[in-house]
Amino acid sequence: MIFFRMFFGCLLQLAPFAFLCFYPFKDHLRFSARKVCVICGISFPLLAAFFAVTCCFLKTMLPPAQILFVSANMVFLFCLIPCVFLYWYLVREIWQKKLFIFSFTMTAALTMTSLDTILETWKQQNFSDGLPYNGTTLLTLAILTSVILPLLLLLLKRCYLPIANELDRRESGYLSLLSVFLFLLLGSGLIPIDYMNIFNPMTLFLYFALMFTIFIVYFICFRILFLSHQNIKEMQALTQTQHQLEIQTEQYKRILETTENNRKMHHDLRHHILILQSLLDSGETEKASDYLQNYVQILRRYEVTKFCSHIVTNMIVSHYQSLALDKGITFTARINVPDSLMISDFDIAILLGNLLENAIESANHAKDHNRFISLNIICSGKMLAVTVDNGFNGCVNQNKGTYLSTKPHHTGIGLQSIAGIAKKYHGGVQFSHEGAIFHSSVMLSA
Fold this sequence. Notes:
By secondary structure, the chain is α+β, with helices and mostly antiparallel strands. It contains 11 helices and 7 strands. The model has no long low-confidence stretch (mean pLDDT 81).
């Protein structure tokens, strides 16, 4: 009977909080979610069985007093060690984020265990046989878990997960230090408590005030981070808008300049024809050919390329084509899109702007024979596909399969913006490289 009591009690404390640890990283697991569940489904019962057998052995060695209760809890803490290593191995994420979630979970577990102990002490006022989970402890713990665990998941889902992917190592490090500090603070306040004498009104007030303060600090911290990242996003959106306006202004100037030059060239056309006629009459066909080639090059310099009838797409692509040609980068584009798209003009501008800006930056550092950019945009029904191939110097910066910016002091926010737009339109993004050629593919569904 004692074995099963210890076994199910240990499982009841391990399984829910393991779920709380893994939940924020469900998309960053080393194996599939099903395989991770199988590994945990085997590991936790084995640990629970070890805990139960050890407690049964301690029951024969120690008197049913406080020392037996403390010894059983020490065995439980020992069982947590392989759980920590298992969690650390199965989750593929930076250690700062893993430490934060683990400390947060330990804080929640300590809170729940303490509440359970208070309720059981109030009902029984004794340690029964000296081991944990006596009387109605398992039932009380199950009820507390069913009530508090969803609230903790909601706190993570609403306050932490929206900003988790945007936190860098430094921010995650500060957050993990805060969570460790709050856990140690709560532990130093709860562990020394004499639960037999806790029912003094002032002691109870301080007890609950400490726990509420801990989780209010978490909520405020999450909220501050969320608002700060919202401000960063708004600043990025403003920067993108200003950049788009600059492109529009530049394109407008180019159109005015082209119009004026076309007017002048039209006015001077008869002079050019007379010169060509004179050269041909004199039999100087080679000079006439050279003159005509120079004239055509001048015409192309002021030509505004029309890639498609979608105004924003044409404007963005024309702008970056000019930048590429100025840097001596070969630029080719095949675009097949209608006059209007279900994708917002703002999002398509950010998407193409980031893709082509990264491509120009990369191709500009490529070897002479590899300085090229090839853009393809195809719209079929409600699907929009964008691919960019460009040459680069062959050096990439990757972290666990994710491409990062190779520019100094850059965090790859452009790639994050592209991924964010793809997610917004229920699509996907894929980056890869083959030798000295970089491939970018984005699929959007309007």
